[in-house]
């Protein structure tokens, strides 16, 4: 008997394969198109935190104004940790923007003597510049009152800070915020009381709730200082909690509060405010926080 030819089967198989190829089927199955050799990868999402912002505005109190860093009882904004041009300080703005960039795209709206209640007004000024980064250092004056009873209540402190961030966020939804903790005032008293000149300056009214009667160590004086210190700790808790609710806000994690300022970091005119050296240390803390990969 003659063997049948397999040619028809081969032809049929080739025809089916051609049909499947024309229909776009591949090894993956289904109707998915074959991968393109020229397909571009999806762009990475823009991070919420930009570690190299192009402009900086500072708000806060006398520390950010460089008070007593250069001359007695005077502001010295060129020595400000946030925006100053002093090469000895190497401010946050200079580190981020370069010296020329800092001169053009950084602004200091801090006011000596300012409290948290003044922050909304400073924020209103700052947002007009549309900064990419706003630095906040405020709270020391809320604790530095004539007496502990006159200190800003914690609920008011919280409400004013929340109001400030809401105003900022409404005007500049993508602006970043760096929040510094309030310094350890009791440690500043401990360091500064070693200077007779510093104590004379304190009598002019610098932080009387903490620095008044600097040499007194009786129970009443110790209770007064502990009360002020506890309020500072409460303020720092508020700053951290409120900042944590804003995805574009970074708190220093208590770095300023924890920093052990020595006499070299304190003004030689009042032994309370940061010296030029102290301002440089604050700039380091801020830069480290702002440029960290994660808060």
From TrEMBL:
Signal peptide: 1-27
Segments of this protein annotated with the region Disordered: 29-54
UniProt KW Hydrolase keyword: yes
Gene Ontology molecular function terms on file: hydrolase activity
Stored PANTHER family: GH22081P-RELATED (PTHR21325:SF31), PHOSPHOLIPASE B, PLB1 (PTHR21325)
Entry keywords, A to Z: Hydrolase, Signal
SUPFAM superfamilies membership: SGNH hydrolase
Any single Pfam family the record assigns to this protein: Lipase_GDSL
Superkingdom assignment: Bacteria
InterPro entries reported in the protein's UniProt record: GDSL (IPR001087), PLB1 (IPR038885), SGNH_hydro_sf (IPR036514)
Chain intervals with Low complexity compositional bias: 29-41
Name of the protein: SGNH/GDSL hydrolase family protein
PROSITE patterns, A to Z: PROKAR_LIPOPROTEIN
């Amino acid at each position: 008997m003659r063997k049948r030819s397999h040619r028809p089967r081969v032809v049929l198989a080739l025809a089916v394969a051609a049909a499947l190829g024309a229909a776009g089927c591949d090894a993956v199955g289904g109707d998915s198109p074959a991968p393109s050799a020229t397909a571009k990868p999806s762009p990475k999402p823009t991070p919420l935190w930009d570690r190299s912002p192009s402009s900086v505005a500072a708000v806060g109190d006398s520390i950010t104004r460089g008070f007593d860093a250069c001359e007695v009882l005077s502001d010295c904004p060129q020595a400000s940790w946030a925006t100053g041009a002093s090469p000895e300080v190497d401010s946050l703005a200079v580190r981020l923007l370069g010296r020329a960039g800092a001169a053009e795209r950084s602004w200091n709206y801090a006011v000596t003597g300012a409290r948290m209640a003044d922050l909304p007004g400073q924020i209103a000024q700052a947002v007009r510049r549309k900064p990419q980064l706003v630095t906040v250092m405020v709270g020391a004056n809320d604790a530095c009152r004539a007496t502990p009873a006159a200190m800003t209540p914690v609920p008011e402190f919280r409400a004013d800070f929340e109001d400030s961030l809401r105003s900022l966020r409404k005007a500049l939804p993508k602006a970043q915020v760096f929040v510094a903790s309030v310094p350890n005032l009791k440690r500043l008293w401990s360091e500064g009381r070693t200077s007779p000149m510093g104590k004379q300056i304190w009598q002019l009214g610098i932080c009387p709730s903490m620095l008044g009667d600097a040499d007194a160590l009786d129970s009443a004086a110790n209770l007064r200082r502990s009360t002020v210190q506890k309020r500072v700790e409460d303020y720092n808790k508020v700053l951290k909690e409120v900042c944590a609710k804003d995805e574009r806000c970074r708190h220093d994690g208590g770095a300023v509060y924890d920093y052990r300022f020595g006499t070299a970091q304190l003004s030689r005119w009042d032994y309370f405010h940061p010296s030029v050296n102290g301002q440089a240390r604050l700039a380091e803390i801020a830069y480290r926080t702002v440029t960290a990969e994660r808060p």
